[in-house]
Structures are given as structure tokens and as C-alpha cells.
Amino acid sequence: MGALDLIDPMIRGGATVLFLLWIAILWRDHRAVPAARVAIAMNGTIIAYLLARVLHPGGATLFPYVIADALSVMVPALFWLFARLWFDDRRRIGWQSWALVAAFGVLPLIQVVLIAATGDFSPAIWILVRVGMFAFAIAGMWIAWRGRANDLIEARRSFRLGVVGAIGGFVIWVSFIEMFHNRDMSHDLARTLTLAAILIATFIVSVGLYRFRSAELFAVPDAGATPAARPAEPSALARRLRVVMAEERAYRAEGFSIAALAARLGEPEYRVRRAINGEMGHRNFTAFLNSFRLDEVRAALADPAQREVPILTIALDAGFGSLGPFNRAFRDAEGMTPSEYRSAALKMLL
């Protein structure tokens, strides 16, 4: 028995325990939050990957191995959903995204049925699954990377790159190795690098474990605009922020960023972030901007003088870049479409 044969189960066993600990913490403290529930499912599929090799494929352990392997390929799809929910502070994911993940999940299920029925697997399904894994992993990493400037939660901002490097990188590496080594982990270099990837991913997740105890990291998005400890009196910076946003309507500017806002106020960016998050209660800069934009939109939709103004025009004038993001933000805030809101508001005035 070689050194790798001894180290392999130790690393996989240790990683499994730590991912179970992460699941326990998320369930105990944040199970009501959609992002935390998806993270729990994602961790479960990571554990399935870690255990799959222990269930050596062959003989009586073939079917348990196939099940664990089928679950493990769902890691990148769940990582993508997790990134969208957590990093973008979404309260829900649209049915189209769930349908895409469900369609992807059918592929390993078909493979399991095929193996159970015939003892063979389909190379075509195997290729589709690997391509899908790459696509979901890269998409999740891009979401984590692209929104870092808008994130107002300092602990989460610093953890973004860790998530990108740990889980996203781990998924891509494992997919690459298994695709080009035909799932043969006996190759010493491939196996060593895979164990290193598991170790690094587990270490980064472990470092973040105690951060997940913080309520703000997985706060329910609905409560995002209600800071835990609002100062008795707003600071001078918070008052200036409200003037610039509510009275000067800075949010209307195309491509308006937190850097542009800080420059306009003549303040360091970190102070502006703290004021928006700590005093005004917003978790990301886009939500902060949209709160003012939606106030303007609601007032316009309820104004009889603007009854004939197209909703798209109102949305664009308020600073929304396109109809899709506007509709999502409005439905999240009001639970109805802008047209339904306008009808209801104008009826109340009659």
C-alpha cells in the first residue's frame, strides 16, 4: 500500500467531517434562508463526491458508487444557484433556472438507470454531463467575481475569492482530471493534485466556518434594509448620502458605481460602504440604488398625470438599465407586476 493509499481516505474523511460541520451550522442558524438551503444541498453533493471513491466501483458496491457519483455531478449546478442567491442577495430563483438545473440533473439519473438495466454507461451522456459541469462552475465563479465591487458585507466580500478559488476551482479541476484521465485516479500525479485540491477547498471552507455564525452573512434578503443596530441619530455621512440620492437623484446616472458615489461625496470608499450597510441597512450597492429607483417608479405609477407614460420609459428614467432587472426588482419589492401596481394605485384615487 502506497503513501497515497493512506493519505487519500484521511483527507476525504477529514473533508467530509468539515463539510458536515458546515451543514450543521447552516441548518442551525440559517435554514430559513434560500441561499443557506442551497449551500446545504451543495455540501451534500460534495460529500457524495468525497465518498464515491471509497465505494470502489465493482462487485456489490457498484450501485452505491453509481448513486454517489451521480449526486456528485450536481455540485457545480448547485454552486451556480448558491452564487446567484448568496452573492446577488436574491430571495428566490426563477423557474427557468430551476428547470435548467433539473434538466441537467436528469442526465446522471438516466445514466444510473442505464447502468442498472444494462451494466453499461453512455459516453454521450457522460460528455454532456462534463460540459454542463464546466459551464455551471464557470458561471458560478463569474457571478462571485463580477459582483465583488457592489458587495457591502465586508466578511462576504473577502470570502468571494475564497469561494471562487475553493469550490469553483475544485469543481473545474476534478471535472478536467476525470474527463482526460477517463475517471482513472490511479495516476499518481492526477491523484496527488486532486487530493491537494480537496485539501485546499476544505481549508478555505473551514476558515470561513465561524464567519457563517454571523447573522449578516446569511440574513434573509427581505430583512436586508433593517440594520441590526441603527444609530440613534444618522451620521453626517448618512445624511449626505440621502441628500445625494433622494434629492439629487444620483442613482439615475448610467453605470453609477460606489466608487463614483464616494468620489462625489469626497469620502473614502470604505466609509461609504459602512454607512450604506451599517446605517442604511443594505447588503449590496445595487439593492441600495434600486430602493431609490423603485421609490421614484412607485410615485410615477401612482400619478394620474403619468397614466399614459409607458412603464419602460418610467423604469429607464429612474435609472434601470433594462426591463428584465426592473421587473425582477419590482416583483421582489411589491409581489406584483408594475402594471398591476399601477392599476391598483390609480383605482384607489378614483
UniProtKB/TrEMBL annotation:
<keyword id="KW-0812">Transmembrane</keyword>
<feature type="transmembrane region" description="Helical">
    <location>
        <begin position="6"/>
        <end position="26"/>
    </location>
</feature>
<dbReference type="Pfam" id="PF12833">
    <property type="entry name" value="HTH_18"/>
</dbReference>
<dbReference type="InterPro" id="IPR020449">
    <property type="entry name" value="Tscrpt_reg_AraC-type_HTH"/>
</dbReference>
<protein>
    <submittedName>
        <fullName>Helix-turn-helix domain-containing protein</fullName>
    </submittedName>
</protein>
<keyword id="KW-0472">Membrane</keyword>
<feature type="transmembrane region" description="Helical">
    <location>
        <begin position="157"/>
        <end position="177"/>
    </location>
</feature>
<keyword id="KW-0804">Transcription</keyword>
<feature type="transmembrane region" description="Helical">
    <location>
        <begin position="98"/>
        <end position="118"/>
    </location>
</feature>
<dbReference type="InterPro" id="IPR009057">
    <property type="entry name" value="Homeodomain-like_sf"/>
</dbReference>
<keyword id="KW-0805">Transcription regulation</keyword>
<keyword id="KW-0238">DNA-binding</keyword>
<keyword id="KW-1133">Transmembrane helix</keyword>
<dbReference type="InterPro" id="IPR018060">
    <property type="entry name" value="HTH_AraC"/>
</dbReference>
<feature type="domain" description="HTH araC/xylS-type">
    <location>
        <begin position="239"/>
        <end position="344"/>
    </location>
</feature>
<dbReference type="InterPro" id="IPR018062">
    <property type="entry name" value="HTH_AraC-typ_CS"/>
</dbReference>
<feature type="transmembrane region" description="Helical">
    <location>
        <begin position="62"/>
        <end position="86"/>
    </location>
</feature>
<feature type="transmembrane region" description="Helical">
    <location>
        <begin position="38"/>
        <end position="56"/>
    </location>
</feature>
<feature type="transmembrane region" description="Helical">
    <location>
        <begin position="189"/>
        <end position="210"/>
    </location>
</feature>
<feature type="transmembrane region" description="Helical">
    <location>
        <begin position="124"/>
        <end position="145"/>
    </location>
</feature>
